[in-house]
Structure formats: C-alpha cells, structure tokens
Design a protein that fits this description.
It is a single chain. This protein has six helices and 14 strands. It is an alpha/beta fold. The protein has a single domain, classed as Metallo-dependent phosphatases (Purple Acid Phosphatase, chain A, domain 2, 4-Layer Sandwich), CATH 3.60.21. Strands 1, 2, 3, 4, 5, 12, 13 and 14 form an eight-stranded mixed β-sheet that branches. A six-stranded mixed β-sheet has the order 6-7-8-9-11-10, covered by helices on one side. Strand 8, helix 5 and strand 9 form a beta-alpha-beta unit. Helix 1 packs parallel to helix 2.
C-alpha cells in the first residue's frame, strides 16, 4: 500500500495549492490513500465544512486535525457526521465532537488512521501515551493491520518518544504542527515509518504560514497581533509511506515537496 501524508494545509492559499496539485501527486506516485492534516485549512485557522469539502473534492481521503481543529464551531456537526472521513485528536475530552480514529477501505485495502495530540506546550489534554493503546488494539481487533498515526505535537522529544513507543505496533508515526519539515525520516524497529514533522502546505515566504512581519511584531512586542496568511507562492510538503499489505509493516518512507 502506498500512502501519501500531506503536512498541515494553511489557509486559502494552501487549499488552492492542494486543489492544483494533490490529484496529480496521487497519480504520479501511484497513491492508494491520501491523508491530509487540515487543522489550519480555514481562513483565520481551524477547519470549516467549506475547507474540509474543498480538500476532499480534490483528492484527500482522510482529514486529520490538531489543536486548532475545534476552534470553528461550524465544524461540530460535520465531525459528528460519520459519512465524513475527518477525525480530531483522540485524547480530547470525551465530550468533544467527532472521533479520534477511522478506517478507510478501497477494494481489499484497509487503512486505519489515528489522530493524536501532544502535551508539551499544548492545551491541557489527556496523556497521549495512556490513550493510544486502546485505539491501536481496537483497530487490530477489527482486522486493520495498516495503521497511520498523525501525532500533532510541539516537542521533538515527545514525538520521538511516541515513535519508539508505537514501534512495531503501527505502520507509521508522522509528526505535524510545527510546519517545518525535519530530515529524520526512518523505519523504526518492527517496521514503523517515522518522521518528527512532515511540514506544511502553504506560503513559502512566511513564518510557518503567517505573514513574516506580523510574526516578528508578535515576538518583538509580546502584544496581541492578528495573524494573516500571505498571498504568495506555496509549496506542498508531504511524505509517502509504502507498507506491506499482509503485515502492515512499513518498507519505506520518502519526503517530497511540490513547488
């Protein structure tokens, strides 16, 4: 199985770039499933039904979210609709709308996707190490052996630790949130693909998707600043994970960037 995972889509520019390129990338790399992090896909961050449908219409098979995923209230009924393959972090409070994992099928292929959020430097949530086991066991019990985890977290050490914790039990642990791709893609023991951060799909001349002058102002003054996304050329940062269909173990992971 060949899985494309696309880093955090940022704003209208990121959505438009995905619209122009996602289907072509899937065709070129012979992708079976495309998983896209959409937690910043709406204008002003968060995710809306409009931005989610935009990404689904142009090639996303599953959407994952993160710390901004529930910021827009209009997404709540969308998350509760089981017809939509969109998931939010598993370790949100049990009262949160939606679900933290899903299974998608195409012919004989089955892919389980889990969305998880870190604790370090993030909102106070349940410990991801304590809640992930039950989800993995449930997916295995349902006969799903190929499992991808989007670990939306700030700290590199926490992401690395999660990769090692899940090594041999899932097919891939892929980091999101920091919007800056790391160069540490590898296959961990037991056949688990890993990277600390996939990167983002958004404006190149920016500070992780934000107008650079606004990011600098915020950091210089520590005063409230309304962030905006610049309107300039974008790139799509992603990874391709290939797995063995029978075992679900990863055999390769490759970083790609489309500009």
């Amino acid at each position: 199985m060949r899985i494309l995972f696309v880093g955090d889509v940022v704003g209208e520019g990121g959505c438009r770039f995905a619209e122009k390129n996602l289907l072509a990338v899937k065709k070129h790399y012979q992708i079976d499933f495309a998983v896209v992090n959409a937690e910043n896909s709406a204008v002003g961050n968060g995710c809306t039904p409009y931005s989610a449908d935009w990404l689904f219409d142009f090639g996303a098979d599953v959407l994952t979210l993160g710390n901004h995923g529930l910021r827009r209230k209009e997404i709540v009924p969308y998350l509760d609709n089981e017809n939509h393959q969109i998931i939010r972090p598993l370790n949100y409070h049990r009262s949160a709308p939606g679900r933290g994992y899903t299974i998608i099928e195409r012919g004989a292929l089955r892919l389980g996707v889990i969305n998880l959020m870190g604790m370090v430097g993030m909102e106070s949530i349940d410990n991801p190490f304590n809640c992930i086991d039950a989800a993995v066991e449930q997916l295995h019990a349902e006969g799903c052996h190929t499992i991808l985890v989007d670990f939306h977290a700030e700290a590199t050490a926490e992401k690395r630790a999660m990769g090692f914790y899940l090594a041999g039990r899932v097919s891939a642990v892929l980091g999101t949130h920091t919007h800056v791709p790391t160069a540490d893609e590898q296959i961990l023991s037991g056949g688990t693909a890993y990277i600390t951060d996939v990167g983002m799909t958004g404006p190149l001349d920016s500070c992780i998707g934000v107008k650079k002058e606004l990011a600098i102002e915020k950091m210089r003054t520590l005063l409230p600043v309304k962030f905006e996304n610049p309107d300039n050329p974008c790139s799509m940062q992603a990874v391709i994970v290939q797995t063995d269909n029978a075992s679900g173990k990863a055999v390769s992971i490759e970083r790609i960037e489309v500009t």
